Each structure stands twice: as structure tokens, then as C-alpha cells.
Amino acid sequence: MPNPAGAPPQLICFNKPYGVLSQFTPEGRWRGLKDFIDLPGVYVAGRLDADSEGLLLLTSDGQLQARISDPRFKMLKTYWVQVEGEPDDAALAALRSGVQLNDGPTRPATAERIGAPPGLWEREPPVRVRKAIPTSWIALGIREGRNRQVRRMTAAVGHPTLRLIRASIGPYALDGMVQGSWREIEEQAETA
Q1: Active-site annotation, residues
Q2: Percentage of residues in the chain with pLDDT exceeding 90?
Q3: pLDDT tens digit sequence for 26-39
Q4: 87, 98, 122, 129, 163 from 126: Cα distances, Å
Q5: Can you list the alpha helix ranges (DSSP code H) found in the chain?
């Protein structure tokens, strides 16, 4: 249902928990957005896999939805990625220059080591950890959106993803949002 005539378009930031689909209807073992957001006329702009967490945008504006989700617009998406092992400079350099995946090379990305993100919530279920293998965090920024791309990129450089949290999409960020919460925000222009 579209917004009433003359009403400004809505833009919603949602901190999507693990196990929630990027659609309103639940499927199988996965919950849907309707368990968290009860707003008519808003639609998901882009997607985030059920086993990934973090920022998901929803809007009532079809043009804005296209700008956010269509890879032609190359909006930067930044992820906090917990990986197996400790990526060295060569692994980070490979991510930055683009890695070869089975569907072709990725575009160059931003990649840097980070500590565990501040204010990070516990994941349910917890991430599998092995005593013999350390884990670490990287911030990875991409401007494309292939299926499970971040997970495939980290695996290609020898560091499988254990936990994936989208921290930002263009100018929109989690900014301390509690997991499972949403807020309405103003549309912003992306800066390069």
C-alpha cells in the first residue's frame, strides 16, 4: 500500500537479527520481517541473507529502493566480518585488489583489521569456535552485491566467515541500534 498522496516517503533502518529473512513472510525455520516491523507500504531495499545480521533498509519510495539495491548505483556496503584465523597483509591486499570467484573477479574492496565492534550483541545461536583456531574481525566494504559475496571473498583468501554483520549502506549506518529494532530516518545523499 503506497503512502497517502502528499505524504513523504518512509525510509526505515532495521538491525536484522540472525535467522530472519529479508522478506515479511517466514519460510521454514527462518522468521520474517513481520515479526519485527508492522508498517504497511514499506519494502526491502536490497537483501541480507538469513544467516547474516545488521543493517537492512526498507522504504516506501520505489526510486530510492532502486538506488539502494541496484548494483548499477554502486552504493558502498560495509560489513563487520568475523573470520577464522588472522588475515595477514597479503590477504587484506588481495581483498582490496579484488579476488577471483567462480563467477569472475570481484571489484576492488576496502579491507582492514578491526577489533570486535563496540556494543556488539550476542548472536543466537552462538558462533562456532574452535580452540585451536583463533578468530579475528575485519571491516570489508564492497560496491557490488553478488550472492554470498563477502563469505566467498574471505574464503578465497583462506579465512572463512564465521559471522557477518552489515554495518552500513552508503550514508546509512547501524549507529548503536539494538538488534531487532528499527527507526525511521531521513533520506541522505551518499558521499564518495
Answers
A1: 49
A2: 72
A3: 999 999 999 999 99
A4: 22, 30, 7, 9, 9
A5: 62-69, 89-97, 149-156
CA distances from 66 to 19, 45, 55, 71, 169 (A): 25, 7, 17, 9, 13
Q: Tell me, what amino acid is at 110?
A: T
Among 56, 51, 46, which Cα is nearest to 20's? 51
Cell numbers linked to 6: 502528499
**How far apart, in Å, are the Cα atoms of 23 and each of 16, 37, 88, 130, 145?**
11, 11, 37, 33, 17
Q: Which residues contact 37 (CB under 8 A, 6 or more apart)?
A: 12, 14, 24, 58, 182
3-class DSSP assignment, residue 82:
strand
List, in order, residues 6 or more apart from 150 with CB less than 8 Å away: 79, 81, 140, 142, 161, 164
Average pLDDT of span 40-66: 93
Q: How many Cβ atoms from other residues are within 10 Å of residue 103's Cβ?
A: 10
Whole-angstrom distance, CA of residue 6 vs CA of residue 160: 48
Residue range 146-150: mean pLDDT, rounded: 92
Q: Mean pLDDT of all residues in the chain?
A: 91
